[in-house]
Amino acid sequence: MSSTTFGYKGLEAYKKKDWANTISFLDKALEDSKSPTWLLARCHAHTQLKNYDAALHDAELAYHCAAERGSGASRKQMIESQYRRAVIYFRLHRFADADCCAKWSMSLAEGRPAGEDDGVEKRVDANGNYTVTVEEGVADKKGQPGNSVLPDQLIEKLNDKTGFEADWNRAYLLRSQALGGLKRLPERDFGRKVHVSKIPIKPQKKVVKKPEPVVEDSDDDEELKKLLDPAPEPVPAPGSVPDEKLKLRADFYQTNQTVTISFFAKDIKKEDLQVEFAEDKVRLGPVPREAARYVKAGDREANSTLLLDNNIIPSASRWSATPRKIELVLQKATPGVKWVKWGEEKIGVGVSDLAPKAAGGAAPVAPAPVTAEPKETTAKDSAAPAYPTSSKSGPKNWEKLDDVDDDEDKQDVNWFFKKLYKDATPEQQRAMMKSFVESNGTALSTDWNDVKGRKVETQPPDGVVAKKWDQ
């Protein structure tokens, strides 16, 4: 099997966050070609598995290979290499080294020459301790791409828009974390010393050898063709998949007023979706079934009846949809009552199944279908539920956040804060960075006028006493 095939398989495993197979396949691919893309993917995989020596080897080798190739992607790969070095050193608590590498990643993103002697690693005192402070790191934004505050003599040489703005912001955030960690280290700690150089020494051999994947021999061209154009999987016959396997993956959370249920599927067509609310049930469809791709609109299996754990107010409930998620926000009929579970899904639906029971034995009446998202909300809906926040801009309504795809990064607890920072103005970003760093992560402000002239004190939660690192 060719190195190209192994490289393709390695990158496919990397996309799936299958770190072990990423390393195994790329080990074989890199025997014949030192591709910076493959090296950086393997570096990331080693970092995730805490193989830091191997990860550092790949980051440094990727830097040199990218510089030697001089292709259109070389600067991007060199920026990534320096950033990967910074991440590895940060995880090793070598915060001085981490800050230097993050700064060099920023410099490359600004369009500066790779060999420029900026003297970052020379910022040490008589004891060899790194002297750059958190405040200096936060204020170091003069070269930010798109900021237009470079000296006149540099504006002619550097592009104001480099195309690497996101890479610069990422390294800038890492610097604040590294310098915050540096501040907390004991005076003689190893992590306070600088042990790195801007141009890393080119590694001569691989540090760690992982087991090779067990792959059957096959013709290279045929194998690559199968990878690039895989044969379709067999489709199950209609009606052959049991209802239990057709059910949507679901998750829910609740407040005193509402229950929010998210259903996950692929290729949801919002324009075709219909949602109908009743007092103790919800009907939705048509929805795609991953386990049964033969299902189409009009089939019994294309619809679901959701039997709810408690009653709701149909007229005050709402829904939204993206290609990967359907979200229902159900208004509780009895506020304050905690639902043990959201309910259960039944495949198929009928009018008699959905309609609420009429009083006095009258014939049930089906509710009108809700075929689109409500465009207007009442004052009560827009005001609640609002939760406490330290933000100067007021409380956040967490149910009004934009819908996002259900991938691993966005499920992470830090995703909201990353999005908040990304969408903020430069002045708000400065306020967020200053307040977060100075308060040791206990306060976050977006009001620069409030925080620029004072030190933001640590504000521990009630019942918690803030202590210094050495106490």
Provide the fold topology.
Elements: H1 3-15, H2 19-29, H3 36-48, H4 52-69, H5 74-91, H6 95-109, H7 134-139, H8 152-155, H9 165-184, H10 220-228, H11 243-246, E1 249-254, E2 258-264, E3 274-277, E4 281-285, E5 304-308, E6 318-322, E7 325-331, E8 343-347, H12 351-354, H13 379-383, H14 408-411, H15 415-423, H16 426-438, H17 448-451
Antiparallel strand pairs: 1-2, 2-7, 3-4, 4-5, 5-8, 6-7
Helix pairs in contact: 1-2, 1-3, 1-10, 2-3, 3-4, 3-5, 4-5, 5-6, 5-9, 6-9
Question: Which features characterize this protein?
Answer:
17 helices, protein-folding chaperone binding, four-stranded antiparallel beta sheet, alpha+beta, 8 strands, SGS domain-containing protein, 36% helix, Immunoglobulin-like, SGS_dom, 471 residues, Serine Threonine Protein Phosphatase 5, Tetratricopeptide repeat, CS_dom, Sgt1-like, single chain
What's a quick, concise take on this entry?
This protein has 471 residues and is an alpha+beta fold. The chain has 17 helices and 8 strands. A 4-stranded antiparallel sheet has the order 1-2-7-6, with no helix packed on it.
